[in-house]
């Protein structure tokens, strides 16, 4: 979703917290806390500037950190180190 400039909301557990920067590239909520999730959804609905800023920043972060090209280059470096 971030890659295609969509604002995201994720649970604050696992790998998600390494990807989403709170209120910069997305919103986080406490896992299994539906009230905070609902609040986060309302926050995006009611603040279109925040939603737009988060979407753009998320897309930029994906391009910088997670593009396929960069991932393949990293894998190539790892495999070269094994030889």
Descriptive notes:
With 83 residues, the chain is mostly helical. The chain has helices at residues 16-19, 34-46, 48-65, 68-82; strands at 9-11, 27-29. It has a two-stranded parallel sheet with strand order 1-2. The radius of gyration is 15 Å and the shape is elongated. It starts with 8 loop residues before the first strand and ends with a helix.
Inertia-based shape? elongated
**Poorly predicted tracts of residues:** none
Report mean pLDDT, rounded to a whole number: 94
Question: Which percent bin holds the helix content?
Answer: 55-70%
Layout: helices, strands, pairs:
Layout (H helix, E strand, L loop, with lengths): L8 E3 L4 H4 L7 E3 L4 H13 L1 H18 L2 H15 L1
Parallel strand pairs: 1-2
Quickly list its features.
single chain, 83 residues, mainly alpha, 4 helices
Short description:
By secondary structure, the protein is mainly α.
């Amino acid at each position: 979703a971030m890659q295609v400039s969509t604002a995201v909301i994720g649970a604050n557990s696992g790998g998600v917290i390494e990807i989403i920067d709170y209120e910069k590239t997305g919103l986080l909520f406490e896992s299994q806390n539906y009230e905070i999730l609902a609040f986060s959804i309302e926050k995006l609905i009611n603040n279109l500037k925040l939603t737009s800023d988060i979407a753009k920043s998320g897309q930029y972060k994906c391009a910088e950190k997670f593009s396929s090209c960069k991932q393949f280059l990293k894998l190539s470096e790892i495999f070269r180190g094994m030889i």
